[in-house]
Specification:
The structure holds 2 protein chains of 2 kinds. Chain A contains 17 helices and 3 strands. By secondary structure, chain A is mostly helical. Chain A has a 3-stranded antiparallel beta sheet. In chain A, helix 4 runs antiparallel to helix 7, helix 4 packs antiparallel against helix 9 and helix 12 runs antiparallel to helix 14. Chain A starts with a helix and ends in a 7-residue tail after the last helix. By secondary structure, chain B is an all-alpha fold. Helices cover 69% and strands 2% of the residues of chain B. Chain B is built from 16 helices and 2 strands. Chain B has a two-stranded antiparallel sheet. The two termini of chain B are 43 Å apart. Classes of the chains: A mainly alpha, B mainly alpha.
Chain lengths: 474, 421
């Protein structure tokens, strides 16, 4: 143990004298800091704007004048997905998913206005976010600092000298790896500080930083291990460089292309056609006389013990609208769920590539903990649907209870009846004050378990490899 | 010279590492081309299936209608942007921008931003296509192939011998660089050429893609040659080249994007739809002639027939839809112009990043870039106008309803001259 620490210490002293190592570290820290500032500014602005638009949408809904309640069903409402605190470090899918949805009666709309569409579009190979710096660039920088750590000693024949003094190659590797981890720690420090200050819960923020720590530990160990296995430093560099390109640059794209090829996920327009066929059976909720609602009508007449819909104490048109919306929503949700399941299945195929690329493990871990993964977007879609259904049904209830059937029927021909069908703005308060929140910390941590264990397995495997290294003949 | 080339080529064939890298390049390019071809054929198949379902659905929707206004309300029309025959090589922004819509005669601003997009979890990582290999991976392979050009010979003790036999000049390194770069170009482009043959892309476009790829590889080979000529150690050379690669592939594009977004402001998309909805919904409450006057400003030919007598008339309904669109036309245009401007400025900034330049060039050739997406949007707008122009006479002249007339509904046109695969 003492040897390990001495070696680590010596290595750090060596790097402090080396222009390359200091330069590389400086570049790494500067890039992370710059990306932190940029991403933080961008996401803070997005969060502010979306929260503002959400308030505006809510206020304008409540400020609508007295109207027929069904008009408000079609007037509709907007919900916006406000980004979570850690999106300032890892924006995840935020840029590629629509951030707002128009909610209206009888329809489920798609999310609109993905930010990526408004970007200048140069950074197609990765946006310079802090997550990108740590996930993609930091391993490369660590390789550049550490590729020669053991190979250098071997080439200079100082390795023999050390072994003669009783230092095992293993403690050599561990020592150098610890030194390299210290470099990694410096690179992570800005991210960890930003995470803790982001306003996210302490548990999430610390697990988030720890995840990045584990990821870099894996790279540090791998770098030093490879350095100990080869004869010359330049072979070590070429090899590590190749591994990095394979794991970090290639695999994520191969993963997403494979997922898209393996799992078929038809788009919304395609599944809508099947849905329309299913919906024809529901009947038109605008038409209380639609035969699809015969049974409902009969039940209502029996329940209130009257002979005609005119005698009902409630407005049957509102009841039918509510019933139709409920049935319709069941069908729509069924199709929406299937679509989300397909997307989740695709994402799941892509995630399996974490077994060959620790980058995907940390990417999943990071996005899950930050609340910027596919599941969170789906959560937004589901929440939006819940808000939609609730306010539409609230308005249908008003339609059934506040205005009379007689007025409702005559409103197109009789201006006085039309006036009576306009209910006061008080009734618009059925709209919930929506603010999107990602899943609870506990749930996110639970979901993070799988990528976290893959990451730990990676480290375990590399350490196991290191313990098998033998003194090589030179 | 020929002798030197032949010798270098034979030498190349004997080096296992070099052969490995070249085979790797060929394999990666093949996978990319295959994945691209499979994605594009999926998109084509989807369009074909959608067209069929769309036509059937339209027939079903028109059935049972008794007036033109109602028929227009219930009939949707598929619009789409078919992938070009080169799209397999550059999937471009097709997973960010929509390439299919179902449009009806209601206010377009409420429909056109709907995006039936791809899986965000996959779009976020990006797809593995030929552009990715040619723009991002090829430079890495050049670095791997060329960073130890002299250093490895020096280490093997052959350096002085080699230079001496070549008469003391640097010709041997030039030849070696050329041979390796050429071999890499062949390895990367061969799968593309095969893919392009399958999709029957036009020869000029194939040549252009080939040219761009070859130039890009040549650029990195030249750079590698220049850096190696400083005779640093192999790791230092590799570090310098890799640093340049990271800077031009990731850092410069990201910083340029941020700068451009700061420099060119854009209206919020959310504002457009919010304001448009207000305009459309307020129309129910404002006096009908106010709406009609606004409508007639753009379409004075209907002045004679614009009187609205009943509480609800379809011509008034579609007039206020159009007035709603007109009320945000400026903002929507500013939104599009901002995208255009940012993309144009990005073209200038791309000069600092060869990989970004290659991406732009190839997505332009494949018609999968932002320009293509905006052109598609223009076609959708034009189609929506055709639809309105078809219906206005029916709504304003009010001829007796006949479903037969609706058989002549305007058809969406795919747009000019995209060689289809």
């Amino acid at each position: 143990m003492k040897h390990i620490l001495t070696i680590a210490n010596d290595e750090i002293r060596y790097w402090r004298r080396s222009k390359l190592a200091v330069g590389v570290l400086a570049v790494g820290v500067m890039l992370t800091l710059a990306s932190l500032l940029l991403t933080n500014a961008r996401m803070a602005e997005a969060a502010h704007k979306r929260a503002e638009l959400q308030t505006e949408a809510h206020d304008t809904f409540l400020a609508q004048p007295a109207r027929h309640p069904h008009r408000m069903v079609h007037y509709g409402h907007y919900v916006f997905r406000t980004p979570p605190p850690l999106s300032a470090i890892d924006p995840g899918v935020d840029a590629v998913t629509g951030t707002s949805i128009f909610l209206e009666g009888h329809r489920q709309n798609t999310a609109m206005f993905a930010e990526r569409r408004q970007s200048a579009g140069l950074a197609v190979f990765g946006d310079l976010t802090p997550a990108f710096c740590l996930q993609v660039l930091a391993p490369l920088l660590l390789i550049l600092v550490g590729f020669a750590s053991v190979a250098r000693e071997r080439e200079a024949r100082t390795l023999d000298l050390l072994t003669a003094q009783g230092v095992s190659l293993q403690s050599m590797v561990f020592g150098k790896a610890i030194a390299l981890m210290a470099v990694g720690a410096v690179m992570i420090a800005p991210l960890a500080i930003a995470a803790l200050l982001s306003g996210e819960s302490f548990a999430i923020a610390s697990l988030f930083s720890a995840g990045y720590g584990l990821y870099l530990i894996a790279w540090c160990s791998l770098t030093v291990f490879v350095s100990a296995q080869v004869k010359q430093p330049n072979m070590s560099l070429a090899l590590l460089f190749g591994v990095w390109a394979l794991v970090v640059v290639l695999t994520p794209r191969i993963a997403s292309s494979t997922a898209a090829t393996v799992v078929d996920a038809p788009g919304k327009i395609a599944t809508d056609f099947a849905m329309f066929t299913a919906l024809r059976e529901v009947g038109d909720g605008h038409n209380a006389a639609d035969p699809a609602f015969q049974k409902l009508r009969a039940n209502l007449l029996a329940q209130y013990n009257v002979d005609s819909v005119e005698e009902l104490p409630i407005n049957i048109r509102g009841v039918v609208a509510g019933e139709a919306e409920a049935q319709l929503t069941d069908v729509m949700n069924d199709f929406a769920d299937r679509r989300m399941q397909n997307e989740a299945a695709q994402a799941n195929v892509a995630r399996q590539f974490a077994w060959i690329s620790p980058l995907l493990a940390i990417r999943n871990l990071s996005a899950t903990l930050a609340g910027v993964d596919l599941e969170t977007h789906h959560r937004f879609l589901r929440e939006a649907e819940r808000v939609r259904f609730d306010f539409v049904q609230g308005l249908n209830k008003v339609h059934a209870e506040v205005l009379t059937y007689k007025d409702d029927m005559r409103r197109s021909s009789d201006p006085a009846a039309e006036k009576r069908t306009r209910v006061s703005a008080e009734n618009w308060k059925v709209l919930e004050d929506f603010r999107f929140e990602p899943a609870s910390a506990v749930e996110r941590i639970k979901r993070a378990f799988s990528p976290l264990s893959i990451l730990l397995l990676w480290i375990g495997a590399i350490i196991a490899l290191i313990t098998t290294v033998k003194r090589r003949e030179i | 010279m020929m002798n030197a080339l032949k010798r270098e080529f034979r030498f190349l064939l004997r080096q296992r590492a070099v052969i490995g890298i070249l085979l790797g390049a060929f394999a990666l390019s093949s996978i990319a081309v295959w994945a691209g071809v499979s994605e594009v054929s999926k998109q084509n198949a989807e369009i074909t299936a959608l067209l069929e379902a769309d036509a059937a659905e339209r027939v079903a929707a028109i059935e049972g209608q008794s007036n033109y206004g109602g028929a227009a309300y219930y009939t949707f029309h598929l619009t789409y942007d078919r992938p070009s025959s080169l799209a397999f090589a550059a999937l471009g922004v097709r997973d960010i921008f929509p390439w299919k819509h179902r449009i009806r005669m209601l206010a377009l601003e409420g429909q056109i931003y709907e995006t039936d997009g791809g899986n965000p979890a996959l779009s976020n990582s990006g797809r593995f296509d030929y552009v990715f290999v040619a723009a991002l991976i090829a430079p890495l392979l050049v670095i791997l192939l060329l960073h130890d050009l002299c250093a490895s010979e020096r280490a093997a003790g052959r350096y002085d011998l080699l230079v001496a036999t070549e008469g003391g000049n640097e010709a041997v390194w030039v030849t070696r660089t050329c041979v390796r770069a050429l071999a890499l170009t062949v390895a990367v482009t061969t799968p593309f050429l095969l893919g392009a043959l399958v999709t029957q892309a036009p020869a000029s476009a194939i040549a252009a893609v080939f040219g761009v790829t070859a130039l890009h590889i040549a650029f990195w080979a030249l750079l590698a040659y220049l850096v190696t000529s400083f005779k640093f150690s192999a790791p230092t050379t590799a570090t310098l080249l890799a640093g340049f690669w990271v800077a031009t592939s990731f850092v410069a594009p990201s910083l340029s994007d941020s700068a451009i977004e700061q420099a060119v402001p854009s209206p919020e998309g959310g504002d457009i739809v919010l304001q448009q909805r207000e305009a459309v919904n307020d129309a129910w409450d404002v006096p009908k002639d106010v709406t009609m006057r606004a409508f007639l400003e753009q379409y004075p030919q209907w002045t004679e027939k614009a009187a609205i007598e009943k509480p609800f008339e379809w011509k008034w309904y579609y007039a206020f839809q159009q007035v709603g669109d007109m009320s945000v036309a400026e903002m929507a245009k500013a939104y599009r112009t901002a995208i255009e401007k940012r993309y144009a400025l990005a073209g200038v900034a791309a000069l600092a990043s060869p990989p970004a330049l290659v991406t732009r060039a190839l997505t332009r050739l494949a018609d999968t870039d932002v320009t293509a997406a905006l052109n598609y949007e223009k076609r959708v707008r034009a189609f929506h106008e055709d639809l309105r122009m078809f219906h206005y006479p029916l709504l304003f002249e009010d001829p007796p309803y006949s479903a037969g007339i609706l058989e002549n509904l305007p058809a969406y046109s795919e747009g000019p001259s995209k060689a289809q695969s």
